[in-house]
Structures are given as C-alpha cells and as structure tokens.
C-alpha cells in the first residue's frame, strides 16, 4: 500500500524538520481542541497538544484499567500507546502496523514502564497474527479507512478480544446522504493523485451497525467530535503553504483540505469515536 503522506513525513523527519517532528513526530492524526475557537493554527506545539488530546478522548472511551492487555492496530509511531502507558500502570501493550519503517521509529521512541516495553509487530490489521482472546482492548486510531476491509478487521478484532473486551476506533463517518459521493473518492485515478493515498470513507453509522452485527459486536458508542477537530484543516493548510509541494500538487492538496473542512462543518462527514462491545 502506498501512503504518500507517510513517505513524506518519514523523509522530512529524517531531514530534521523540527516543525513536523513537533506536530506529527508522535501522533499521525487529527487534533482535538476542547475550545476550537482558541486553537492556534500557526503553532506546532498547539497542534501537538491537540493530537495528544485526541488520543486521550479515545482512551477515555476505551476505559483501560491497570494490568490490561491492549492492542493498537495501525499504531503509527506508537503515540497512543505511549500516552496510555504514561497514565496507566502494569499494561501489556502491543502495536501493530503494516509499515516496518514506522515500527522502527515507534520502538526507538518507546520508554519502559514497570520494567516493560510495548512490543511492536509488523502485520496487516485484517489478518491479526495473534491468538484468539488475547486482548482486553483493541484500538485503531484514524486508520481503519486504509485497511483492505472493515468487515475483516472487525471480525479479527472480535476474535482476539477476551470476554468483556472492547474495540475503540476513530473514523470519518459519512451521513447516509453523502455515501454515494464518498464512493467517488475511491476512483483509482483520484486515489493515485491524493496525498492521503487510498481511503475508504464510505461507511455510515448504519453501515457500522450492520458490519458490527456481522462480526458479533454492538456499536455501544458513536460520538461525533467533528467540531473539535476542525482547526486541523487550518493547521494543515498553513503547513502545505510553507512546504515543498508547489503548483498543481499544492493546489490539489489545498483543495482537498478545503473540501474536508466544508463537509466536516456541514455534517456530511463526521469525525467520530466508536466503541464496540461483544454482542
Ligand atoms: C493516519 S495514520 C494513524 C497512525 C496512528 N494510529 C496514529 O494515530 O498516530 C494511519 C496508519 O494506518 C497504517 N495502516 C494502513 N494500512 C494498514 C493495515 N492494513 N494494517 C495495519 N496498519 C495499517 C499506516 O501505516 C499508518 O500508520
């Protein structure tokens, strides 16, 4: 799978881009601002705080207790696991990613707690290399839209959850009326040009309830947090304007951000936190 934004991020981090290191060196996801009007889109440290806050909102929903076994599927640089490990003791943490380059950085950044380090495993979230009933919580932060199949991932997450376990994710959930438009974004020609690579944002709330039922799960929480994430677009827009992309590539990326901002504001595409519990 080709994800141009990940390749760009890794090459900029290798070149010592300090603004990117601060904003996306730990988390590769949108920010969460409790007071969106107070966001400071020109400041990387404000973005870093907001990205950390997004992980915290998701972790609140996951309700993780000391001693639990937690899998973060599509773990990026391991930021959500680090955030969790700093707050809860005696955890057994595993991060999984399809891209070994990200895992290398995650392992480099990881710090021990209670004599343990998170373990990082290369693999596809749709064929989890773990035994049945091996985790109390499975997380997937802002990545399910890249996975080859939501249905396969939900089935795998259900398989590896222990009794009483839960799956918690974040995703862009379209309003039912917007689903046909989101299917257009899947045209191969658009996906090739798109900075974010192949993204499937076609699963509505009703779609999630159906997929969950097929996997033996129930959607127990679906929280729309779009309003709190919107300053992300102003931040990314400024970064793009300062970055190396020029000409048509930059105009296209800026246009994409404006569209995401608009469909977020109008409720057509909702940044959501979802919790699934076994049926
Ligand atoms: C937007 S990033 C989010 C990373 C991380 N969850 C975070 O919040 O910082 C999307 C991630 O999904 C990962 N990914 C894409 N397809 C995957 C797959 N099939 N299995 C596991 N990880 C995958 C990418 O490598 C990338 O790390």
Account of the 3D structure:
It is a single chain. This protein is α/β, with parallel strands linked by helices. Helices cover about 45% and strands about 20% of the residues. It contains 12 helices and 7 strands. A 7-stranded mixed sheet has the order 3-2-1-4-5-7-6, with helices on both faces. Strand 2 (about 90-95), helix 5 (about 100-110) and strand 3 (about 120) form a beta-alpha-beta unit. Helix 2 (about 20-25) packs parallel to helix 3, helix 3 (about 45-60) packs across helix 4 (about 80-85) and helix 11 (about 230-240) packs antiparallel against helix 12 (about 245-265). The mean pLDDT is about 95. S-adenosylmethionine binds next to helix 4 and strand 2.
Low-confidence runs: none
Question: What composes the largest sheet?
Answer: 7 strands, mixed
The CATH class, by name, is Alpha Beta
Any idea what the CATH superfamily is called?
Vaccinia Virus protein VP39
CATH fold description:
Rossmann fold
Apparent shape:
globular
